[in-house]
Every structure is written in C-alpha cells, then in structure tokens.
Amino acid sequence: MSNVPHPGLASVELDEFQYDNRIVRDFAIATILFGLIGMLVGLLAALQLVFPNLNFDLPFLTFSRIRPLHTNAVIFAFVGNGFFTGLYYSVPRVLRTPIWSPVLSRFHFWAWQAIILGAAISLPMGFTTSKEYAELEWPFDIAIAVVWVSALVNIIMTTINRRVEHIYAAVWFYIASFVTVAMLHVVNSIELPISFMKSYSVYAGVQDALVQWWYGHNAVAFFLTTPYLGLMYYFLPKAANRPIYSYRLSIVHFWALIFLYIWAGPHHLLYTALPEWAQTLGTVFSVMLIAPSWGGMMNGLMTLRGAWDKVREDVVLKFMVVAITAYGMATFEGPMLSLKNVNAIAHYTDWIVAHVHVGALGWNGFLTFGILYWLFPRLYNRPLYSTKAANFHFWIGTLGIIFYTIPMYWAGWVQSSMWKEFTQEGLLKYPNFLETVTALKPLYFLRGVGGSLYLVGFVVMIYNLWMTALKGKLVATETAKAMPLSAIWHAEKSEYWHRRLMERKPLALTIFSLIAVAIGGMIEMIPTFLVESNVPTIASVKPYTPLELQGRDIYVREGCYVCHTQMIRPFRSEIERFGEYSKSGEFVYDHPHQWGSKRTGPDLQRVGGKYPDSWHYNHMEDPTSMSPGSIMPRYGWLLENDLDTTTTKAKIKAMQTLGVPYEKGYEHQANTDLVKQEQEIQERLKQSGIKTAANKEIIALIAYMQRLGTDIKQNGNSQ
User: Which GO CC annotations does the UniProt entry carry (predicted)?
Assistant: First the structure.
C-alpha cells in the first residue's frame, strides 16, 4: 500500500510536546506495593487451609473474608495498576501526543488507589455483596464507574488528538477493555441499597447467577486478558526490537476475541439450574475461543522469529515468553473446561484454582514483571541494578508457578475422584465429605511452598527496581516532536479497509467494540429475564422469614459462599451425598444467589433439618467438635455478637421492592415474628443443654441454615 504526502509537507513545522513519566512511575509503584500486599494475603489464605488457627480467632483475618480481599487485590490493585502503568507509557508514544488531560490522569491514579484502600478495609470487615470479583458494596461500585469512565474519556480524547494517522493494535485492545468493563460493571452492579454499606442485587437466583458469571468470566477476559494483550502488542516488539509478526492476524485476533469472549460466561454454570440452552451457548462459544486466543499467542511468539538468541540473554524477553506461553496454556485449558464431560470432573475443585493461577501468576504476573524490568531503566536513565537478581527472580518465579499449579491440579483430580467413587455395593466410598478435604492437606502445603517461592522472587524484584531507581534519577518528562495530524500523509483509495474505517476513527472503533461485546450478553440474558419458562416457579418455595433473612445476610457477611456451594448438580454421586438436585424455582427469592464456585466444604443446599440446632451451634463455636480434623476456622464471635434488628424493616421493604411477596405492611410486624422464631430456637438449644441469649447472631444463622432446602422437600413439582 502506498501513501501520498500532503502538499506542502516539507514546510510543516513539527509540534513539540512532552511525555509525562511521573504518572507512569506512580502507577508502577502502586503495582509493586499492592502486588506485595495481595500476594501476602494470598499466602496467608493458602496456609490457613493447612493451619486454620492462623486466623488467630479474628473475624477480619478469617479465610472466608481475606480470600475475596486477595482476589480483589491481585486483580484490581496489582494487575489493574500494572495495566495502567503500561497504558500511560505506551498510549502517548504510539499516538505521538501527550495524554489529553493530566488532571484526569491524576484523578484516575488517586481515586483508584482510594478505592483499593477502601476494599482493603471493607472486605475484611464483612461488607460484601458476595458476587465473585464484584464483592465491593454500592458506594464503591459508583466510584469505580466514575473513575473508569473518566479514564476512558481521557484515552479516547488522547486518541482523537493523536499525531499519527492509524491507531496501533495496542490501543484497540485498551479501548475495547475500557468499554467492555464499564458495561459489565454497570449491569452486574445494579443493586438496591438499604444502608451505607449494604445492598441487595436486583437480580435473583438464576438471573443473578447468569449476570454474575457473564460479568465474572468477562472480568477475566477484559481486565486480565485484553488489556494485557494490548501491553504485549506494545512492549514485546519494543523489547525484541522487531515489528509485530502479522498486522492482519492482529485484526482477526482482536475482533474475533472480543466478539466471542462475551458469550462464554455460562460455561461457569454447566449442570446447574441455568436453562440448558444458555449452558450450550456458553460451551459452543468457549470452544470457538481457542482460535482467536491462540492467534494472539502465535502473533506474540512469532514476533521473536530470528530473535530467539536474544531470549537466552535478555531477562525481559524471558519473562515475556513464559507469560505468552502461560496465556496460551490457560486459553487452551479454558475451552476444554467448558466441555461438559471435563467440567463434570473439574468444576468446584482445585483444578479451577490451578487453571486461574496459570493465568494470574504466569500471564499477568510475568508480563508485568517483564514490563517493569524494561521500564525502570528508561524511567530512571540507568541500567538495571542487577541482571543476575532479575534472572534469579525469573527462575524462582517459574519454579513457584510449577510448585503452585501441579499440586492444585492433582488436588482437583483427587477431589473429583473421591467425590464420585462408589463401592461395589453401590454406596459412596467416601460418604463423609471431610475425608475428601483432609486428603488434600499435603497438596495445600505444597501450594503454599509454591506461593512462597513466587513471593521471594517478587521481593527480589522490588529490591532490584528500588536500587535501580535509587542510583538513577527520574526522567520526569520526555520531549518529543511530531507532525500535526492534518499534515500527515493521506491514504490512497486502495488503503486496507480496516485502516480506513477503524484505525483512522477512534469513535467508530469504540462504538463497534461496544456493539461487538453487547450482542452476546443481550442474546443470553434477555430471554432468561423475559421468558417465564426459563425459571419455572415452585409453589412450596416461600420468602424467607425475617430471622432467616437476617441469618442469610450473616452467611453472606462471613463469606460462607467462598467454601460452600448451594447448587447440587444432577449427578448420582451428588444426589446420594447431598440430596435432590437443585431446581431453578428454588432460588427466586435469593438476592443475590449463593451458588458458589468452589467446594472446600460440602454443599449446603439441602442441609436444612439434617442436623439439630445444637450441632450448628457447636460447629460454629468449634468445628472440630462436630467434625474432627476439620480445617474450618472457629466463628466464636457469632455466639457473642447481638443481632442488629434495627435493619429488619428496611430489609423487608427492599425485598418487597424487588418483588418478594411479603404482605403489604409486613415490615411493621417483621421484628415481632423474628423474636418469636429466636425464642423457639433458643428453647431447642436449651433442651440440648446449650444456654444462650435469643438475640445472638448465631441464632439467626441457625434459622437460615435450617431453612435451606426444606421448601423443595415439601414439594419438588414445578408449577
């Protein structure tokens, strides 16, 4: 393709401008700081599965509260800040223009860190929506939307003000990521606040689960994958000093990936109460994802053709090659896990934990490390302090990934095999779920060893980068020159269509990206909401009593959904172990759903009436008293805390607003009924030799636990 110069080009003066490296430095420091915190919390959580007493009987250090803190810190603080670091460095340089608004850049930085600090405080305190990767309560949801959209505006305006004709591939991925995450976040976070830090999802049951995993899967796709693909498209060619392998492959990779990815969320809900057609759609599009995902991987690795000798010597390229390889492994495994026969084995097990960490530790972690090692010498105008230390980091980090993932893959196989094994007489070989938990302790310990090795490498990197900065001086701004866009070459009519229609027009690129990602979500969700046959009602399913509703909120606050599912799949082994499989109509009053995604403990969907009240009381006071060898921590504070009944009225009114059929005016008598049910449970506990006040949180939790699954036991017929 040829271009012709604009008339009078030779006489055009170059614009002089500056790149701001301070914002890059600030995001890099935040990446490192929050990465360290997030990994330390993750290591503590991992070790608690071997040594439960590491929570020191403190509610805010309990596994079920710090595990969401770990995932949020790693995803949004470490990877998020890592993305923004690369974004604010690469965008001005590929567009040859400064960031449009330094004020918005600073707002983005400080507001994002404030949100992270808020999460670090609120999640251990038990303020959670219980929606995976979206646990933050409604004030934070609003703040995230504002900050995210402000950053999107800044990037789009920078793109409009560029001094190059065509928008490079990295920027396509950045824009699509911002647009899609904004859409996902807003739709999934529609909730009804009842107090400053408490809300209920407007969706219930099946619909809530579908929306959540449409968000949850695509939070992985458009926060952990596409932004980092954009970083790969910029930093890998820079580090290798070679152009990207295939421009046309990048086009196919981009559009196919963002269109197909958005459909894949339902594969997290295979064999659940989600309508079969939605599960099938999720599987089909998940399998198709292999092609664009591996297209991106091949585009990255093939960029190194003729430069593999550099990989042996350059530690930055070592990190990047392993990162891209881990991306390829994870994006092959993901579609395989969406196949029903594989999913039946892997889902709810530690296999999924291994799969996720191949992506998090390998793809996101190693690419972040490679970028930081490449950036710091340029930001501080001096060579990296120690190449040997960086190589040590590479090898111990790689060893850490291996020691982390292999035990978790093995644990997943062990779990699934033990869950499903029957004796020759047709009985469950391991009827006590605890047997399947204690068998994994050695593997959990090895996982902790792997995490420790990875963390050691991270600390070595911190020292290396700190010394690099200490011995250099920050290049706060870099001066550059470029022609104004109006004076740059204009294309002939033969220009490739994508360049003409998309790469010249950032608003068109933004709009078409939004359309591409919105189609799948609309087709999956709208029928589930509008067609009643997707969620058949069950006449015997009634709203929760006020005490049960309060108990459910305590269940959510304590993060019980982290270890326990409430979704029995239609497998013989699960029906034998837990009871009748779950029906979609059981969850119509669950705002939000509590289906869970991992079984460290048994499923609780049919636990109501299985044990006496005293069993639950003793189990929460000391789990080993009821289940010797249990790795569940003690929840002694539930026995001491008084139940806050001042919120009952607001909660009932909120549920009425959401369509739960409480009688009109019932909110005024709700606490009367609550006290009556408290006294009934108190009396049953007294008969079992347990003396406790009726107004304790444990009483409400027992009420909720004893309700679970009892409606369907009365009448399992759909009507």
Answer: plasma membrane
> What span, in angstroms and rounded, lies between the C-alpha atoms of 283 and 347?
14
> Could you read off the pLDDT of 147-192 as tens digits, one per residue?
999 999 999 999 999 999 889 999 999 999 999 999 999 999 999 9
The verdict on residue 9 lying in a domain is no
Q: 39-42, long-range: CB within 8 Å, 24+ apart, which pairs? A: 39/74, 39/78, 39/451, 39/454, 39/455, 39/458, 40/455, 41/66, 41/69, 41/70, 41/73, 42/70, 42/74, 42/451
Establish whether 267 is an annotated binding residue.
yes
Q: End-to-end distance of the chain based on CA atoms, in angstroms?
A: 65
> How far does Cα 471 stand from its chain's mean position?
37
357 is in an annotated binding site: yes
268 labelled ligand-binding: yes
The reply, when asked if residue 564 is annotated as ligand binding, is: no
| Total tally of structural domains belonging to the chain | 2
d(CA 137, CA 128): 6
What is the residue whose two structure tokens read 């997707």? Answer: 534
- The CATH number of the domain holding residue 650 is 1.10.760.10
* 593 and 508, same domain (yes or no): no
Cα–Cα nearest to 605, from 588, 627, 580, 630: 580
616 is in an annotated binding site: no
Rounded to whole angstroms, the Cα distance separating 259 from 184 reads 14
Q: Is residue 96 part of a domain?
A: yes
The pTM score is 0.95
Q: Does 460 share its domain with 591? A: no
Compute the average pLDDT of residues 405-410. Answer: 97
Residue 8 Rama label (left phi>0; alpha psi -120 to 50; beta) = left
**Cα separation of 404 and 565, whole Å?**
24
The CATH code of the domain that includes 408 is 1.20.210.10
Rounded Cα gap, residues 704 and 548, in angstroms: 4
Question: How is 461-497 classified by DSSP, letter by letter?
Answer: HHHHHHHHHHHS----EEEEEE--GGGS-EE-TTS-H
As a whole number of Å, the CA-based R_g of the chain is 27
* Environment class of 393 (CB within 10 Å of its CB; exposed 0-12, middle 13-18, buried 19+): buried
CA distances, 188 to each of 46, 199, 217, 502, 539 (Å) = 29, 13, 12, 29, 28
Contacts (Cβ under 8 Å, ≥6 apart) of 60 = 66, 124, 125, 126
Closest CA to 382 of 515, 444, 473: 473
Consult the annotation and say whether 591 binds a ligand.
Answer: no
**Interatomic CA distance for residues 164 and 396, integer angstroms:** 42
Q: Are both 455 and 586 inside the same structural domain?
A: no
Domain co-membership, 509 together with 561: no
Identify whether residues 507 and 641 lie together within a single domain.
no
